[in-house]
Amino acid sequence: MKDYLDNSNKKMKLALQLVSGYGGEFQSWRLPDSNERAYTDIDFYVEMAKTAEKGKIHTLFIADTPSFGGAGGGTDISTRSPAFPLEPMVMLSAVAYATQKIGMVATFSTTYNLPYNLARQLKTLDTLSKGRLGWNAVTTGTRETAYNFGDAPLPNTTIRYEMAHEMIEAVQTLWGGFSENAYITDKTTGIFADMSKIKPAFYKGKHYQVKGALPIPATPQGQPPIFQAGPSPEGIELAGRFASGVYANPFTIDEAKAYRNILKQSAIRYGRNANEINMFSGFMFTIGDTYEEALARRYKLLDFMSKEEFEGQIRYLSAMIGVNLHKLDVNKPLPESLQNQAIPHPQDPRSPRAVELIKQGMSPKEVLANGVINYHPVVVGTPKDVADFMEKWFKAGATDGFSLAPDSQKGVKDFVEKVVPILQERGIYHTDYEGSTLREHLGVAYQYSVTKIH
Ligand SMILES: Cc1cc2nc3c(=O)[nH]c(=O)nc-3n(C[C@H](O)[C@H](O)[C@H](O)COP(=O)(O)O)c2cc1C
After folding, report:
1. N or C, which terminus of the chain has less Cβ within 10 Å?
2. Is residue 108 very low, low, confident or very high in pLDDT (cuts 50, 70, 90)?
3. Is the per-residue pLDDT at 13 higher than 60?
4. Residue 420, class by beta-carbon neighbours within 10 Å (0-12 exposed, 13-18 middle, 19+ buried)?
């Protein structure tokens, strides 16, 4: 194993996804222990952030897209909660004010923003939070988003990534323009700022141009670290050049290791150290005191689905395992002859797990309840089961940490109270924050101004 993939002397890093306030399962807003108005309840986001801070979670993480944003990229929220919270910048300013340590990484499009506005708002929030902000710089791949910003269709991948490089360069140039020693505020001399140390950006790219300067000094971490999500070759280049964190979605340890290696190599190609780029693998869970208790919770979520939606899931599972489940009793294990016929769909990386569970004798409904169709690997079980999964991946060198999407609000509390102590006891998770800024939490260096290419 490449030494930079070796985690034996490292501790895992954790991000907690806020999703839309309810958790990673879009039916969980209906659970008896959920606050059904969490989506619009700022007190609730603050409370979750504080709970996460008690568990020393390195950072909150907010996925986002500037469009209607229904679950799974759809636009129907008639029964399922939205996939994203309220506008992240505004929402996080309240969270920042109510917390002290936890980092806050939020997603902002490199295609549907302007550098000056974005640089100003991000640096303001980084100032407000005393250096705890991170920017997940994504190109926005959903077609419908384009029409929220005019009549032009979504630019192709090449152009979007050209724009992404330019956007980050322009934003970082604006950030670095107000030199660290330019903020004087000397009452005796009457000098507020040293104008000789404040440089306009004069940034001239193909897609973005900006001339002026930003009147905001350096924050305690200099400027927010960049995160990235999106596994195309262009995405990997962007991550290698700029990212301190990458939100990834591997489904197996082997897949994760290969991707982590690719990311580290990309960073090395840009003259950076492999440790400067941290991969956060998406991970979901439902916790109970026993497997049966956790499973009952998952069944409840499935039962909230409409008949059509559930049938859609059964159809999907049929395709994943190559067996038509349509006429079978979904509450009973498959007859042995059909179990033997099950083979994973070659194009769906989640399929091997679905086949494995079918062959263990689980009914199709139980297999679905185990989250085989979810957008990340899922553990349904006890706090120990959740910790075991994380330990196994981490010790195998598959990831630097996890981007956690608990099933529900209760899942956040359960994770902090029941899983965190196990991880700490096993010596694979920190017992306190390393410092005060997000960069310190992540173990990435202070940075000011545009990332240099070596
Ligand atoms: C784990 C993961 C999380 C993502 N989160 C977001 C997000 O919150 N908002 C968004 O617009 N795109 C998100 N994306 C999409 C990517 O930014 C990108 O637009 C998409 O994957 C297509 O780009 P690619 O060609 O690099 O794969 C995410 C992608 C991955 C893999």
Report:
1. C
2. very high
3. yes
4. buried
Tell me if 299 sits within 8 A of 25, measured CB to CB: no
List, for residues 110-163, the tens digit of each pLDDT value. Answer: 999 999 999 999 999 999 999 999 999 999 998 889 999 999 999 999 999 999
Q: Which two tokens stand for residue 331?
A: 């509450």
Judge contact between 66 and 20, C-beta under 8 A.
Answer: no
Distance of CA 137 from the midpoint of ligand 1 (Å): 9
Ligand 1 center–CA 14 separation, angstroms? 19
CA gap 14, 277 in Å, rounded? 14
234 closest CA partner among 141, 357, 311:
141
CA distance 113 to 110: 6
pLDDT at position 68 over 90: no
Decide: 338 and 364 in contact? Cβ < 8 Å.
Answer: no
Quick check: 366 and 357 in contact, CB under 8 A?
yes
Q: What is the ipTM of this complex?
A: 0.94
Question: For residue range 207-236, what is the model confidence (pLDDT) as tens digits?
Answer: 999 999 999 999 999 999 999 999 999 999
Q: Judge whether 61 and 17 are in contact, CB under 8 Å.
A: yes
Taking residue 93's Cβ as centre, other Cβ atoms within 10 Å add up to 15
> Could you tell me the distance, in angstroms and rounded to a whole number, from the CA of residue 26 to the centre of ligand 1?
19
Q: pLDDT-derived band of residue 76, with 50, 70 and 90 as boundaries?
A: confident
- Cα of first residue to Cα of last residue in the chain, in angstroms, is 26
The residue whose CA is least distant from atom 25 of ligand 1 is 232
Number of residues in the chain: 454
Residue by residue, DSSP assigns 46-76 as HHHHHHHHHTT-SEEEE---SS---GGG---
Pocket of ligand 1 (CB under 6 A): 63-65, 107, 138-141, 157, 229-232, 234-235, 247-249, 282
71: confidence class by pLDDT, cuts 50, 70, 90: low
Distance 109 CA to ligand 1 centre (A): 10
137, 119 Cβ separation under 8 angstroms = no
What is the CA(193)–ligand 1 centre distance, in A?
Answer: 40
H helix and E strand count, the chain: 16, 13
Q: What is the mean pLDDT of the chain?
A: 96
Does residue 99 sit in helix, strand or coil? coil
Which atom from ligand 1 is nearest to the alpha carbon of 235? 26
